[in-house]
Amino acid sequence: MRHAVHMIDVTSDTLTSPFDLLKAKLEQRTAVVGVIGLGYVGLPLLRAFHESGFPVLGFDVDPAKTDALKRGESYLKHLGPEFALEMSQSDRFDATTDLARLGEVDAVLICVPTPLGRHLEPDLSYVEKTADAIVLTLRPGQLVVLESTTYPGTTNEVVRNRLEQRNLICGEDYFLAYSPEREDPGRKDHNTQTIPKLVGGVDERSGELAVQLYANAVEQVIAVSSAEIAEAAKLLENIYRAVNIALVNELKTLLSAMGINVWEVIEAASTKPFGFQPFYPGPGLGGHCIPIDPYYLTWKAREVGLPTRFIELAGEVNHSMPDYVVQRTVLALNSRGKAVSGSRILVLGLAYKPNVDDVRESPSFEIIEALIELGARVDYNDPHVPRTHAMRNYDLQMNSVDLSEEQLASYDVVVVATNHDAYDWQWVADHATLIVDTRNAMSDVTFTHDRVVNA
Question: Which residues, at least 6 apart from 98, have a Cβ–Cβ distance to it below 8 Å?
Answer without folding.
Answer: 59
